[in-house]
Design a protein that fits this description.
InterPro entries: DNA/RNA_pol_sf (IPR043502). The chain is of the alpha+beta class. It has helices at residues 18-28, 42-54, 79-95, 97-112, 177-183, 206-209, 239-253; strands at 56-57, 62-64, 116-119, 135-141, 146-152, 202-204, 213-216, 225-229. Helix 3 (79-95) packs across helix 4. The chain is globular.
Length: 254
């Protein structure tokens, strides 16, 4: 009996995803396409407009506004949270005298450097328009020492709100990594530099700084003090945008 061989044919159909194709092309152009060619999102455009139009040159440094979302700031009174954080900090001081001494030194450094100041009842008749940031001491490791720095948590939530929830992030103005790497091949020698305490060099407007307060006292028997940070803080979600925007403005001016 003669065998009959059959054949099977398959038809495969694939649908092109335009979004995936566009993302692929954007990835291939990463670091090549200039940022000036990209259209900013509406929120990024708003943040850029707020900061650029409100920034002003001081005798030393710059003062910039925070890029608030529309209708903000409208934050709850979170002083109870600040009190809880302070009590926990005082308990830590009792257990760790070295941590206490370093923390005290860090706070005093903030005050003496002009990065923060104490707010009194006479200075602040309307205490409703304020916001407190939980803080914590973190060891910054280096080759020679472990310096304690104070970190303020702008994302800490109270009644469903946080400082960062009221702020716009702003566009990413940093040069992309491929651009940085390509610049190293432009000349015979490449230079790199670091700006010490970059965020602390930029002053906040008075009406914005009131949302960067924290409670402080060295001993549980002392009267609680209200301190206000007057400079851009690292954990504000808009701080990278503000810092690079100010740096770019300075470079263009000088």
């Amino acid at each position: 009996m003669e065998s009959v061989k059959g054949s099977n044919k398959f038809l495969a159909i694939s649908y092109a995803d335009e979004d995936l194709a566009r993302q692929f092309c954007e990835t291939k152009a990463f670091g090549i396409e200039g940022k000036s060619l990209r259209k900013l999102a509406p929120e990024d455009e708003l943040a850029k407009q707020i900061v650029e139009s409100g920034a002003r040159k001081l005798e030393v440094g710059f003062e910039v506004p925070l890029p608030w979302r529309t209708g903000e700031p409208n934050l709850p009174n979170n002083r109870p949270l600040a009190g809880f954080v302070l009590r926990a900090l005082l308990r830590r001081f009792e257990k760790d005298p070295v941590y206490k001494a370093d923390y005290k030194m860090a706070v005093n450094s903030y005050l003496s450097s002009g990065y923060a100041h104490e707010v009194t009842d006479e200075d602040e008749p309307n205490i409703r328009e304020q916001y407190f940031l939980p803080q914590r001491g973190v060891r910054k490791k280096s080759t020679s020492t472990q310096k304690l720095i104070i970190v303020f948590y702008s994302s800490a939530s109270y009644n469903g709100r946080s400082l960062n929830s009221a702020l716009l992030t702003g566009p990413a103005l940093q040069n992309e990594l491929p651009v940085v790497l390509l610049k190293f091949s432009e000349g015979e020698v490449a230079f790199a530099a670091d700006i010490e305490a970059m965020f602390s060099r930029i002053r906040l407007r008075l009406e914005d700084a009131r949302y960067h307060r924290f409670l402080w006292k060295e001993e549980s028997t002392e009267t609680t003090r209200v301190l206000q940070v007057d400079r851009v803080t690292f954990r504000d979600m808009c701080s990278p945008f503000i810092a690079v925007s100010t740096l770019t403005h300075t470079a263009h001016e000088f």
